[in-house]
Amino acid sequence: MLSRIIAISCLIVYLFTTTELHQLLKIPVLIQHYQEHKEIDSAITFWEFMSMHYSQPDDHDADHEKDMKLPFKTDDGCMSFITAVYVTPSATTIPTEVIKPIYYSEKKEHFQKQVSLQSSFLASIWQPPRNC
Q1: What are the residues whose beta carbons fall under 8 Å from the beta carbon of 14, sequence distance 6 or more?
Q2: Buried b (16+ CB within 10 A) or exposed e, 92-108
Q3: Which terminus in the chain has less CB density within 10 A, N or C?
Q4: Strand, helix or coil at 71?
């Protein structure tokens, strides 16, 4: 039971630090901002609100600062971290068979070589610097 809790905790920490999953924590801000728009225009639907904030170009209106606090509007500098997992040697099994490498007998070129013709004018631009 304890190992399951530790595994779930590690998975949650991993997902929230290496993905944009932490953006879901901003859902209350989304709901509050929708309610503010609903007070201004009672006829607006949630779909129209989402369309206005996510599918249209960003116009810098009066509530632009609040708009940028909505989920998935900005990236918060999400960084990946390397996690090391240590396994005891008794829990691992070492394979006894050797995997044979695969050799390809026929070599095919998939791209044709292109011959480029340089004009003397273009070639003269790329000359090394000279002493005057």
Answers
A1: 83
A2: eeeeeeeeeeeeeeeee
A3: C
A4: coil
Query: Comparing C-alpha atoms, which of 64, 41, 39 is closest to residue 53?
Result: 64
% of the chain surpassing 70 pLDDT:
58
How far apart CA 43 and CA 2 sit, in angstroms, is: 51
The secondary structure of residue 30, as a DSSP letter, is: H
Exposure string for 120-130, b = 16+ CB within 10 A, e = fewer: eeeeeeeeeee
Q: Whole-number mean pLDDT of the chain?
A: 76
The torsion region of residue 77 among left (phi > 0), alpha (psi -120 to 50) and beta comes to left
Rounded Cα distance between 46 and 16, Å, is 27
Residue 116 tokens read as: 């480029």
Residue 131, both tokens: 């002493």
- Separation of alpha carbons 21 and 14, rounded Å: 10
Query: Which pair of structure tokens corresponds to residue 58?
Result: 């960003």
Q: Please tell me the predicted confidence (pLDDT) of residue 5.
A: 93
